[in-house]
Amino acid sequence: MADDPLSLTFAALADPTRRALLARLAEGEATVNELAEPFPISLQAISRHLKVLERAGLITRGREAQWRPCRLETAPLREVSDWLGRYRGRWEDRFGRLDAEISRIREQTAKNQGEGQ
Fold first, then answer.
1. Looking at residue 64, what is its pLDDT?
2. 5, 3, 1: which is closest to 73 by C-alpha?
């Protein structure tokens, strides 16, 4: 697996549990126990997911007495958004041309069926 920041972020986002953890952290910081609460998996499994998110820079863990609250870090998500944004215009243009071609084919098919009746 590549170790560049964008690859680490995409790998971390590939898992639905990790995306759900990020969604929860978007509401505010939380402890590991609070994050684990809604999931039917072990605390150790949640900790492994959090390590992946931390390695990707998507979360940080603080220290407050015996607590280690997790916090969402948005910089890697901005990098993903920026990367996707560079291609968005091309994709929209291609989809627009595809829609136009499909419409043209449908119109031609309808016209040909009307002539055959």
1. 75
2. 5
The model carries a pTM of: 0.77
Given a cut of 90, whether residue 16 has pLDDT beyond it is yes
What would the two tokens of residue 99 be? 């829609």
**According to DSSP H, which parts of 14-116 are helical?**
16-25, 32-36, 43-55, 75-115
Percent of the chain with pLDDT over 90: 85
Distance of CA 36 to the CA centre of its chain: 20
Among left, alpha and beta (phi > 0; psi -120 to 50; other), residue 4 is beta
Return all residues near 75 (Cβ < 8 A) that are at least 6 apart. Answer: 57
The letter for the amino acid at 80 is V
For residue 111, give every residue at least 6 positions away whose Cβ sits within 8 Å of its Cβ, in sequence order, or none: none
